[in-house]
Amino acid sequence: MRKSAPLSFGQVSVLHAIADGNRFGFDIIDATGLTSGSVYPTLDKLESLGYLTSRWEDAKIARRDKRPPRRYFDLTAEGAAALAAALARYKNLKPVSLARFRSLRAEA
Amino acid sequence: MLKFLLAVINAGRWLAPVSRRKEWRRQWRADVAHEWRWIERRDSGIAARAGLIGRVAGALRHAFWLRMHVRRIEMITQDIRYGWRLMVRKPAFALVAVLTLGLGIGANVTMFSWTQIMMQRQIRGVRDGGRLVALNGTTRSRQDLSVSYPYFRDLRERRPDSVEDVIAFTLAPMSLRANGGDPQRTFGQLVTGNFFDALGVRPVLGRAFLPEEDTTPNGHPVAVFSHSFWQRRFGGDPSIVGRTVMLNGVAYTVIGIAPPEFRGTEPYLNLDLWVPMAMQPLVTSGGNRLGVRGNSWLEAMVKLKPGVPIARAQADFDVIARNLADTFADDKGRGLKLSELWRAPSSGGPAVVAVMVIQQSVACVVLLIACANVANLLLARAASRQRETAVRLTLGASRSRLVQQLLTESTLLALAGGLCGIVMSYWTKDLVRLFIPPAPLPIEMNPTLDLPVVVFALLMTGASVVAFGLVPALQGSMSSVGAALKDSAGHLTASPRRARIRQTLVVAQVALSLMLLVSAGLFLRTLQNAQALDPGFSTRTGLLASIDLLPAGYDAPRGRAFFRDLLARVRELPGVEAASLATKVPLGFGGNSETSASIDGYTPAPNEEISIYYNRVGSEYMKTMGVALVAGHEFTDLDTTDRPDVVIVNETVVKRYFSGRGPLGSRIRVGNRTLQVVGVARDGKYSNITEAPRSFMYMPMQQWYRADTVLHVRTSVDPGTLVPRLHEVLRTLDSNVPLFDVRTIAEQLSIAVFIQRMVASLLGAFGALALLLATVGLYGVIAALAAQRIPEIGMRMALGATRRDIVAMIVRQGLSLTLTGVAIGLIAAFGATRLFKSLLVGVSATDATSFAVTTILLVTVALAAAYLPAHRAARIDPLQALRNE
């Protein structure tokens, strides 16, 4: 599988959210603001790329909550490196003045 | 509400692929349950609950995504890796399978690359070639006629809106002299002034013709050279543009060099140069034809406007043709027909199409046989993989999953085979040149492995995956789990069903190869017969050599005198038995001229056109060519212009038009001349060796002068020794007149049977290939059957069977398979061979000898293939065999 393909913004957001401590699917949805229909496939994709690992929650904790164990995700070393690289790329985008375009839209 | 959401997820799991279904359901149930608890605990409002519903909808999207991606990527890469490992682990198996498929696919690709040049669907190097269609003149009975120049002019001037332009051209051999060197024979085209512009061909150097260069007869001696001729003859010297060269003794200015891709509009030919149509009187013999409406000698093409269907242009032209037919007496009864280029009569017509169909279908049959072989190999391997299959099924693999994996393996094999096939056809594609007839024309056949050919190879590869992979895959995935796992002994017997499939495949192989062999046999006999066939003239040692007086500037009276002197001198040469002239060589490539005629004393039926093929010949032609005269006498040197016109007709003319009358002394009218019949010649073959008897007449060359003729010499010595002497004679008569295209009559005759030779060679080669493949298949199946029967053989031997009994038993099994195949094959061959009846010569499509000989050949080879495993099986140690049981 190719790992050199640059990550999409959605993928970076998901990696970022996990690195930020959000380990479960719904937490990641809340943290990124993406829909569930894109977050879950992204998680699977990132896992197949080797950037994430997933495990099932400890059964004891789940039983205490009277619900099935959830799946939670962790960054791998590669995932961390990919996230760092992606964030560095975003940092390269210097702030630009957009006032001109806003006024354009007003005219239209 | 939680229950509802969980039910949605429960139902949605069917969207997810099998391999991820459990995991998906577990993940989503847990996440939804957890979220629900949170919502309840915090007593969130309706918005949070609605949000959860939205997220569950996302779960379905997730499941669908899994189906689309996970299965594809993970499984297929896994299957490919697994298949690759299998191939590497058993290289012999892979090698045999890939080579077999390579042979099959390669044969198809090579044939397709040949078919492509034959089809010539587009003329190379032109813009919008797809819009070009051929235009032919028609009469009530013919659809393949040329058009006259005035007719072309009218068509072009009145061309309908559906048509962009009309061009006309004709092949014109010319003698070129540059820088004071020796004259050289070149092949060019006389083309109308709009030729290059209409075709969208831009010269790479210089310019194309201007419209005004094609107006006044002989007014603008200019020429465009082809790129390859420029390279070949002038070393690509750019200063040639603007210089003058001598063409047929007239100075022409070279104005341009055509781009390398453009080779002219004649199929299969690579032309040297083009000159404007208005130069015709100086280029071809027979005077100025540009104003003669009754003389049809031009090929024409029409460029349709974009998006116009051929039928619409045809309808538009029909109106114009009817108008012309009403206006001009010479065009009475004439129409015109548009046809796609590859179907046009000038592309070779039905014979070429037949050859294309034959070669392509034969290649398909070979591929089928190859596929049957590989399918057999795969089935054999499936037997040895039975336990693997059973284990995987037990561990929960679905059947479709196994089929997919087996098909992936087949696809890998097929792709390797396809690659192998492309490499093979890269090596074999140029073999087509072996079939180029030795005609005096710049014939070019350069099959290329271009995009359409590669696409075709891919299609064939895909088709063969289905052909050889599907049945073994379905079969291989079907395994009785219990039986396979229980079977503790080392031998896993093939299931009866699998054995039956393998036997069916072998029967099919035998049948198919017999079909090919029978066809090959018929064509070999045809070739034999065609070579032995009586063409109506003697094929003993003789020489043909072409002469053209036009370039040397002869007019008709001087030309007649020259030919008279030439014949007198040649006849004096030692070793020459007879010599004569004729404009057409029998069974030549150039076709034959025909003329309409009326015959005194014969009233044609309404709508009947009397059309007779003819040749202009010199004195003693019949003697030279060994054509027997049934009555009368042949032309002498006395039959000149100051004597009454005479003619010799053949037996068919007598039979058809002189029934019950003595033909000698009768009159035939051709144009405004009246010819008296002075002789009757035996029927012969004139255009091709398979033609039916046709009306033919000979007219004396001295009375019907043409500047270009072929010298015919009958020799009593090796013709080769005579060639220098002939050149010498020509030199002493006029050093400006060269002899060219010197060939023996035997060489000339090989042209006549070239289609038969080509088909016979192809079928012979493919038949041998098919036989080889079928033999390998039969051997494999018999070997497997014998191995399966080893315990039984041991038992029989223990009970007193001799080795000979065992051999007989196994061979009998092989024989019964073979004979079943033979029976089916004979029936199939019986049906198939009548399809190419028209190409056969002197042998019926159900020729008993061909059928019998090939059947015996096949059965013999099959017996040998069955004997080997039988012999091996009979040598086993019965004790050993029984102990294994």
What does this molecule look like?
The complex is a heterodimer of chains A (108) and B (885). Chain A has a single domain (9-107), classed as Winged helix-like DNA-binding domain superfamily/Winged helix DNA-binding domain (Arc Repressor Mutant, subunit A). Chain A has helices spanning 9-19, 25-32, 36-49, 59-64, 77-91, 99-107; strands spanning 52-56, 71-75. The model of chain A has no long low-confidence stretch (mean pLDDT 83). With 108 residues, chain A is mainly α. Chain A contains six helices and two strands. In chain A, strands 1-2 form a two-stranded antiparallel ribbon. Chain B folds into five domains: 2-82, no CATH class; 90-125 and 349-492, no CATH class; 146-333, no CATH class; 514-533 and 748-885, no CATH class; 550-736, no CATH class. Residues 488-492 of chain B have low confidence and may be disordered. In chain B, a hairpin with a 2-residue loop joins strand 6 and strand 7. Chain B is an alpha+beta fold and 885 residues long. Chain B contains 25 helices and 22 strands. In chain B, the strands form three sheets. In chain B, strands 13, 14, 15, 16, 17, 18, 19 and 20 form an eight-stranded mixed sheet that branches.
The topology string of helices and strands of chain A comes to: HHHEHEHH
Class from secondary-structure proportions of chain A: mainly alpha
Question: Any idea what the radius of gyration of chain B is?
Answer: 37 Å
Portion in beta strands of chain B: 5-15%
Biggest interface between chains: A-B, 24 and 25 residues
The fraction of residues assigned to DSSP E strands of chain A is: 5-15%
Largest sheet of chain B at a glance?
8 strands, mixed
Number of strands of chain B: 22
Q: Numbering strands along the chain, what is their spatial order in the largest sheet of chain A? A: 1-2
Helix content of chain A: 55-70%
Rounded Rg of chain A: 18 Å
Biggest sheet character of chain A: 2 strands, antiparallel
Number of strands of chain A: 2
Number of helices of chain A: 6
State the shape of chain A: elongated
Instruction: Quickly count the domains of chain B.
Output: 5
What distance separates the N and C termini of chain B?
65 Å
> Architecture of chain A, according to CATH?
Orthogonal Bundle
Q: Uncertain regions of chain B: pLDDT < 50 for 5+ in a row?
A: 488-492
